[in-house]
Specification:
The structure holds two protein chains of two kinds.
Chain A (H helix, E strand, L loop, with lengths): L10 H20 L5 H9 L5 H12 L2 H30 L22 H15 L3 E2 L5 E3 H4 L32 E3 L5 H9 L4 E10 L11 E12 L3 H16 L5 E8 L2 E10 L16 E10 L1 H13 L11 E9 H9 L12 H4 L4
Parallel strand pairs in A: 1-4
Antiparallel strand pairs in A: 2-3, 4-5, 5-9, 6-7, 7-8, 8-9
Helix pairs in contact in A: 1-4, 3-4, 5-10
Chain B lengths: L1 E3 H5 L9 H10 L3 E8 L2 E7 L10 H12 L23 E3 L5 E10 L8 H10 L6 H13 L3 E5 L7 E5 L5 E3 L5 E3 L5 E4 L4 E4 L3 E2 L11 E9 L1 H10 L5 H8 L5 H17 L2 E10 L1 H6 L6 E4 H8 L10 H10 L3 E6 L2 E5 L10 H12 L21 H13 L3 E2 L5 E2 L1 H7 L17 E2 L4 H13 L5 E12 L4 E12 L10 H17 L6 E4 L7 E11 L2 E9 L1 H6 L6 E6 L1 H6 L16 E10 L4 H9 L6 E10 L11 E10 L8 H17 L3 E2 L2
Parallel strand pairs in B: 4-7, 18-21
Antiparallel strand pairs in B: 1-3, 2-3, 5-13, 5-14, 6-13, 7-10, 8-9, 10-11, 11-12, 15-17, 16-17, 19-20, 21-22, 22-26, 23-24, 24-25, 25-26, 27-29, 27-30, 28-29
Helix pairs in contact in B: 3-11, 5-8, 6-7, 10-12, 11-12
The chains are: A alpha+beta, B alpha+beta.
């Protein structure tokens, strides 16, 4: 092998020359015909080794001040070549392992997992907070007044039946409106808020609710809702539509479309069910949306004047101004099941998993 | 309920849209078509109509909706015009005794019929609907029901003794019904009777003895209006839910009885021959008519319609002419009372309409919800965050950082667990789903223990969970709620120089609680007072926050482990999170970091078991060495055999760090401080090891 000629002993020339030698070495090592022992002999041999020859030749010719520069570069080059040889050895034999097995898993500190329901609920709430809604909370044990009467549920409405509502024991001695039950929806917080505050009102109400439902894949006696309420002068049905359309786009992405169907709830009129275009197929139709292109997601409507009337009457009983004047103010309310949304979003097939504490389930959300 | 489009279209001659489009347009207006199936001359719709719209649960009712949506004419029901008698004769005598429960009763005689299965259009429609024909006159009543939603009945006239009397039943009166069952009636039941006996349970089901059979020659056709509450009560009392009771208990159309009677009478003659005798009997109780067909008008202001509904997508808004057009199409009669104001007479079939807002909803519905614009309300005000939102967030993120995953368990627990896990009062559920869910949970640890056990039983051996949620105390008179927090862990307990493997779980839990509480402003201390029964003896502690109890934690007792068939140690904590939610978060304060070197000094001592770490820590702090940066245990060793370390004693390596913010510490500083430390540790009963 030829020894490269040095034009001068400047650092730049030396770097160029050493780079040339290094390239030669790398070519030799990676060549198909590479033989380690042969290479050692030719390059690193004590007497006739190529590296030794270069070193000798260049050092001999070099002025004193350049000898150190050549020495440093020479040592670095030798080390690089040795390392490359060692790496080749490792790959060759698979036995002489002196380095790390970088394919072993790292030792991660195990982080706790956010519950998919808690996460979904927080995301929904945050969408409405950005739209100017304050968060409202209320008790899980409610009276018949807040859960039903004030929300315009007639006395013989099926929801009032214990078939659907879990009730606290030993309530028979009390007047109907004072009887305690597990709230069946988060709507009582609407009433509580309107008793405490005068309009304008914008509330988002997350919470746990209960029904007397035997558990199966889609039913749980415990589940979660997020509800919203907006009351002010000149709140219209088109405001309700715009608000929910905006919120659904914020939550599911701007491509999502909404459509509204007439529905019936005792505490709203007009009432509507809202569907969003299927987030899986974009509305073309797939198994998840039962080939309809749409997924039913929430219930909503304009607050029924009877609800405002109950609030006013109760405000009077409490010595407060009846400020929910239906001639001047109006409002809308909406509600959605968080469990269903989380199940849809994450493809969860059984609602019971959300309440199981099963680590195998939870750790999927890490 | 099913709808056949050829039948539907017979009422809508001008309708030009496809069956498919019609199904979608109806659905978007709340008359939901759930499924469509091709039939010979059109489509069969499977409908899902909300219970407040009983008026639309028939072909003519759906046709009326379509007429309103498309603004096309609705043909009158065929053959509902007054029906002339074929032969003169006396009208059939009817007496309404229960004048509060029966508002209208019509009856008409057809003589000389020849009963045979229905034919023609009725047979064709029934085949498409999958409805089995019974006999001509009965099929005709079903046809009348499916076309206009008014129940009617046919009697075998020759089984009747005297005129019809609508009365309350006699207590204990027996009646055999069309389904063959015999019912014993009570005084609250309403019956259609003749002068001798009850013929049928009014509004629910006809009687067996007066039914039309193949040999029937003369028929009496009945159509009536009964009080919703009375029919609901009767239907429930006798466990009979029929098409008729479904309609009557939701409010039938007061004006429909004579029309239906005409329709059915005419079709009976068509199907079975015979002659209509005399005029129709039609008895009306004015007081009940006033509650339904003759309800007072409602005032409707167009400005209110616009105020509630807002902007339309085409920007034109809901105009006065649209309001009038839709309401008229739905059967209302509008009389203008002032500019933009109307007195609206309500259709007799729409008992669900009572207020102005109900009419506004009708207008929005027929217009089409999706034709309204999407607008956003303007908002002036402030957004109020919950006062404890930050605390809640801190608890969650801290615990997750410590490796605990969040779980949610049932709100309920058994009475047994309620007593075991807390001494606080618990409240019972009146109609629990099971005995295991008989109580409102007074603590979160019962649910946590269950979740951990479930994991272990599924061979998941390492569990770290927390739950934050409501716990309930108090009584059935007054339930008190507050936010609780539980932690649970099992598995992966690893020994180190300080802790034995069997103690590691306890110390991990203690560490987690310390890290959590350190996020809040308050003094944290531990003791072993008032520990609940679920904690194994000597394996638990209580936490005090600013001197007030805030948590208990420890290992589950052997009894509880066995009861749950758990073979590895489980540690649990119950925290009163409400205290933390109300506590201020710790405000970190940055201190200057010394640029001088820190010096570590280790002290190896033998201590009797009676000396606890807290004694050592406090006696060293009591020295008030200004340069003392930290004190910590590094290694603890006990020798079960008593050789390397005598029984009843343990060896402890204490590490102390000295550092000054002002200077490099000199040897004499360190020597002096070290000797004071050695003296203090010796004074506690420690013996320094070589």
């Amino acid at each position: 092998m030829n020894i490269p000629q040095l034009t001068d002993f400047s650092e730049a020339s030396l770097d160029a020359a050493f780079a040339e030698v290094r390239a030669l070495a790398e070519t030799a090592i990676t060549a198909a015909s590479f033989d380690k022992e042969q290479f050692r002999l030719e390059w690193l041999g004590r007497k006739q080794g190529y590296l030794g020859q270069i070193s000798d030749t260049w050092l001999k010719a070099a002025p004193v001040e350049a000898k150190k520069l050549i020495g440093q570069r020479f040592n670095a080059l030798k080390q690089t070549i040795e390392e490359k040889l060692a790496a080749e050895t490792l790959l060759d034999s698979g036995i002489e392992i002196s380095g790390l097995d970088i394919t072993l898993p790292g030792t991660a500190q195990r982080l706790g997992v956010e519950h998919p329901l808690v996460k979904t609920m927080a995301e929904i709430v945050s969408v409405f907070q950005r739209m100017g809604y304050s968060v409202g909370l209320g008790p899980e044990v409610e009276t018949d007044f807040y859960n039903f009467e004030a929300l315009n549920f007639p006395p013989n409405h099926p929801a009032r039946d214990t078939q659907d509502t879990l009730v606290v024991d030993a309530q028979d001695g009390k007047p109907l409106r004072d009887r305690l039950l597990m709230r069946t929806h988060t709507s009582p917080v609407q009433i509580r808020s309107m008793l405490e505050q005068a309009p304008p009102l914008r509330l988002v109400i997350p919470g746990k609710v209960h029904r007397n439902d035997a558990a199966d894949a889609t039913h749980s006696p415990v589940f979660h809702q997020v509800e919203g309420l907006c009351v002010d002068t000149n709140i219209t049905f088109s405001d309700l539509k715009g608000t929910l359309d905006h919120a659904m786009k914020a939550f599911f992405g701007s491509a999502v479309k909404t459509r509204f169907f007439p529905s019936f709830f005792p505490f709203t009129e007009p009432s509507a069910d809202v569907q969003i275009s299927c987030i899986f197929c974009g509305g073309k139709g797939c198994r998840k949306c039962k080939h309809s292109g749409w997924i039913e997601l929430l219930g909503c409507g304009m607050v029924d004047p009877a609800v405002f009337a109950s609030v006013n009457q109760r405000r009077i009983e409490l010595g407060r101004e009846p400020v929910y004047d239906t001639a001047r103010i109006s409002g809308f309310a909406f509600g959605m099941g968080v469990d269903r949304i989380a199940m849809m979003k994450y493809g969860i097939s059984d609602i019971g998993l959300l309440y199981s504490g099963d680590m195998r389930f939870l750790e999927q959300f890490a | 309920m099913d709808i056949l489009t050829p039948w539907l279209r017979s009422y809508l001659p001008a309708l030009s849209v496809t069956d498919e489009q019609l199904a979608e347009d109806l659905t978007l207006r709340g008359i939901a078509v759930e499924g469509t199936f091709a039939i010979a001359n059109g489509t069969r719709y499977e409908m899902d109509i909300t219970t407040n719209r009983v008026d639309a649960m028939n072909h003519y009712g759906v046709a009326r909706e379509a007429a309103a949506i498309y603004n096309v004419p609705l043909a009158p029901l065929p053959a509902t015009a007054p029906l002339a008698a074929d032969k003169p004769g006396d009208s059939f005598p009817v007496t309404i005794e229960a004048r509060d429960l029966c508002g209208r009763f019509t009856a008409r005689i057809v003589r000389g019929v020849n009963v045979k299965p229905a034919s023609g259009l009725i047979a064709e429609y029934f085949a498409a609907l999958g409805q089995k024909p019974i006999s001509g006159p009965v099929d005709v009543t079903n046809f009348g029901w499916l076309s206009m939603g008014q129940p009617t009945h046919v009697f075998d006239l020759d089984t009747l003794e005297g005129g019809i009397i609508v009365r309350r039943a006699k207590p204990g009166e027996k009646l055999r019904l069309l389904d063959g069952t015999e019912k014993t009636l009570v005084a609250e039941d309403l019956v259609v009777a003749d002068e001798k006996k009850a013929l049928g349970l009014a509004g629910v089901m006809g009687g067996w003895d007066s039914r039309v059979t193949e040999t029937t020659k003369n028929i009496l056709v009945e159509a009536a209006w009964f009080d919703p509450a009375a029919i609901r009560a009767s239907s429930r009392r006798h466990g009979l839910h029929t098409d008729a009771s479904h309609r009557f208990e939701r409010g039938a159309d007061f004006a429909a009885a004579p029309l239906a009677n005409n329709l059915v009478t005419r079709l009976v003659v068509e199907q079975a021959g015979g002659e209509v005798i005399g005029e129709m009997t039609d008895i009306i109780i004015p007081a009940l008519a006033a509650k339904t067909a003759d309800r007072p008008t409602i005032a409707l202001r167009v400005s209110e319609v616009q105020r509630h509904l807002g902007t339309t997508a085409d920007g034109l808004g809901i105009s006065e002419s649209i309001v009038a057009q839709y309401l008229t199409a739905l059967g209302c009669t509008l009389t203008q009372t002032a500019a933009g104001e109307y007195a609206v007479k309500l259709p007799s079939w729409r008992l669900d309409l009572e207020r102005e807002i109900d009419l506004i909803e009708e207008i929005a519905r027929v217009y089409g919800y999706n034709k309204f614009a999407n607008t956003l309300p303007t908002f002036i005000g402030t957004v109020i965050e919950l006062p404890h939102a930050e605390q809640e967030h801190t608890i969650r993120t801290t615990l997750r950082g410590l490796g605990f995953s969040e779980a949610i368990s049932s709100t309920f627990c058994s009475a047994e667990e309620a007593t075991l896990f807390t001494t606080a009062s618990a409240v019972a559920i009146g109609n629990p789903l099971s005995a295991e869910a008989g109580m409102l949970r007074p603590a979160l640890t019962p649910g946590m223990a269950t979740m951990i056990a479930n994991n272990l039983h599924r061979d998941v051996s390492t569990v770290r969970l927390f739950e934050m949620g409501t716990v309930f105390n108090g009584s059935t008179a007054e339930v008190i709620e507050h936010t609780g927090l539980s932690l649970g862990l099992t598995g992966s307990a690893i020994a180190n120089s300080l802790y034995r493997a069997e103690d590691a779980l306890f110390y991990e839990l203690k560490g987690a609680l310390e890290a959590l509480l350190a996020k809040f402003t308050g003094a944290v201390t531990f003791d072993t007072n008032e520990l609940p029964a679920w904690i194994a003896l000597g394996r638990g502690a209580r936490v005090l926050f600013n001197g007030q109890p805030i948590a208990v934690f420890g290992e589950l007792s052997a009894t509880e482990q066995q009861r749950r068939k758990l073979r590895q140690t489980v540690a649990l904590a119950e925290v009163n999170a409400a205290v933390l939610l109300a506590a201020p978060l710790r405000q970190p304060v940055s201190r200057e970091i010394s640029r001088f070197q820190a010096v570590e000094r280790d002290f190896s001592f033998l201590f009797p078991d009676t000396v606890r770490w807290a004694d050592i820590d406090s006696s060293l702090r009591a020295l008030k060495i200004p340069e003392l940066q930290s004190i910590g245990p590094v290694e603890i060793f006990r020798d079960p055999k008593g050789k390397a370390v005598a029984a009843g004693t343990y060896s402890l390596l204490v590490r102390v760090v000295f550092q000054s913010t002002e200077r490099t510490l000199a040897d004499e500083d360190l020597t002096g401080n070290s000797s004071r430390i050695i003296a203090a540790l010796t004074a506690l009963g420690g013996v320094q090891r070589a």
